[in-house]
Amino acid sequence: MERSVDGITFEKIAQVAGAGSSTMLRNYAYTDVSPLTSSSYYRLRQVDYDGKATYSTIISLGKPQRTTDWLVSTSSPRHFTIQSQLDGDSRFSVLDVTGKPVFSQAVSTENADVVIPSLPTGVYLFRLTTKQGRFTVRQVVTAGK
């Protein structure tokens, strides 16, 4: 895992052991234990057995926000309530750990209920995009039994 303050120059912040050769999709997770106080850019650097490196798409996370900007609560593994003190309408998005969008819905920022049809257990980025900016938090989702 690599991190950057400018999206150009990256530094290694972690190494996660791979599962070896596989034809199946593998999921990996890492939590930045020392996040920057400003905006951060992240990418995954994958090194094959032959030493060839490939890079994931770069994702950007804004500077940490005050906890009063917005809140996501859950009453079930697929039902979320978004409460915000931000002005205007917005878009709530869920991204997987690679930054790929898995769900997106327009919401009112004051109070919105969102039901996501299918969201497997995992770590996701919850993003609220408003005219004031883009606010992102990491969320662990556990599927109900």
From TrEMBL:
<dbReference type="InterPro" id="IPR026444">
    <property type="entry name" value="Secre_tail"/>
</dbReference>
<protein>
    <submittedName>
        <fullName>T9SS type A sorting domain-containing protein</fullName>
    </submittedName>
</protein>
